[in-house]
Amino acid sequence: MSNQLLKGKKGIIFGALDEKSIAWITAIRCFEEGAEIVLTNAPVAMRMGEINKLASLVNAPVIPCDVSSDEDVENLVTESLKHFGGGFDFVLHSIGMSLNVRKGKHYTDIDYGFNSKTLDISAMSLHRVLATCMKKDAINDWGSVIALSYIAAQRVFPDYNEMADAKALLESVARSFGYQYGVKKHVRVNTISQSPTKTTAGSGVKGFDGFINYAEKMSPLGNASAADCANYIVAMFSDLTRMVTMQNLFHDGGFSFTGVTQAIIEQMEK
User: Fold this and answer.
1) Residue 11 and residue 249: Cα distance in Å, rounded?
2) Residues 174, 165: Cα–Cα separation, whole Å
3) Mean pLDDT for each consecutive 10-residue tract of the chain (270 residues)?
4) Structural domains of the chain, with CATH
5) Considering only CA atoms, which of 142, 31, 32, 39 is closest in space to residue 89?
6) In sequence order, what are the residues at sequence separation of 6 or more whose Cβ sits closer than 8 angstroms to the Cβ of residue 176?
């Protein structure tokens, strides 16, 4: 059902890989709610995924962008301004990559060169995008930026590895830039800490199936789905949340504030 919450709004969505991805589902929901969209992803991810299929569904151009490249980010923002005929209203940062996880490196024995790349792509890319948007005055007054995070930024989940550090840095960048952009143009910047979700990227984390089942039992409402998250992002892009900024917003069915559930107690007592 559409309420046209984003009618007249324009935005960039990073990270749509395939139909399982939160960014993909969010792009469709934004389009359904009346928004115009530019899609972007890294060239290698574009070759692996199906982003052109999504582009046809939401009538959006696809602009390749390696977020670790100043030139690519500047080109993305410049071309988006041209496409929209002016500024845009929202940005979804749905980007994460860990070479140490891919290579099976334990957290206590990470490759620091890989780690630098992880932090750059997964966290500092948000800074690079927002800095470029600010320099080009690309985001309209009262715009909204959302970056996807995870509770491992605050709590230890051993197999989440260095991505926990990356998410902690991502949330810090969102707070700091939320202040700067808020003062300058009333642009709000938030992170959403989503339940573990069966995306192509998320499923690559060691022990993911066991973990998602644990989170389901630890959440009073159960795990939030990718579709649920997309709806929340639409709300955060809308004018209904104009005074929310610099927050890490837990979207996890209550997992983040639950000490233990009866389901877990019963399982442990078996």
Assistant:
1) 21
2) 14
3) 93 95 97 98 83 96 97 98 98 96 95 98 98 98 98 93 97 98 98 90 66 92 97 98 98 96 86
4) 10-269 (3.40.50.720)
5) 142
6) none
